[in-house]
Structure prediction request, 272 residues.
Amino acid sequence: MMPPAFDPLLILALLAMGAFGGFAAGLLGIGGGMILVPFITMIFTARGFPEELVVHMAIATSLGTIFFTSLSSVRAHHKHGAVLWPIVRLFTPGLLVGAWVGPWIGKQMNTSVLAFFFGCFVAFSATQMLIGKKPAAARELPGKPGMFAAGSVIGILAGLLGAGGAFVSVPFMTRCNVRIHNAVATSAAIGFPVALMGTLSNIYFGWGEPGLPPWSLGFIYLPALAIIVLASVSMAPLGARTAHKMPVRQLQRIFSVILCALAAYMFWKAFN
Prediction:
């Protein structure tokens, strides 16, 4: 029998996890999904959620938090005039299609395959953070068909992995001669349509799924969503302010080690 949805230990664990994820996102500009999904998976597993659903629910709940946290991020970047809205408009049609399809693809995968795929994503992101190498500009942004295709790929990966898509969109834009400052800000803006459509998709494809615990909306576990959003939105600004006061490059190396540990957990989850 699963513990009640609002027991104190669950609330404390989710608050701590949301605070850590929000702080890391504000400090390093990384997507919260990289950190949230493994921790949510641990918590859902410990609470006795059906084994075949824990990773799907963790990814869906993580994507739901991005729907809310991306709003504050976009607002801050927009105030600095850093968001390139014409690029957002070119990306959006493909993003919406991809973010709807991504959760459907995830539903076809069993928990082990999905955990392994996510582990690969986190390991790759940790390696990129550890190296700290930015891709060199090599070309211009493609036309409308190319941007639709790029947006679709970003949307599929984001919807599949419970992330905002920055791990793909930022390198793509910097390779296409978009300044890194603008690429990060624009990526924050495209995270909103990705999270919106991905959240709706997870509700639709998870609706009526056998074995879902009470307080679930499709694959999204609402108590976890509410508590994580509360903590992460509160801590992200602190992380952003701290980024201007501390040696971020050293902190990136520390967080990359943490991400490697989380990737190792997801690989263990995939094979056990």
About this structure: The chain has ten helices and two strands. Residues 8-271 form one domain. The first helix runs from residue 8 to 28.
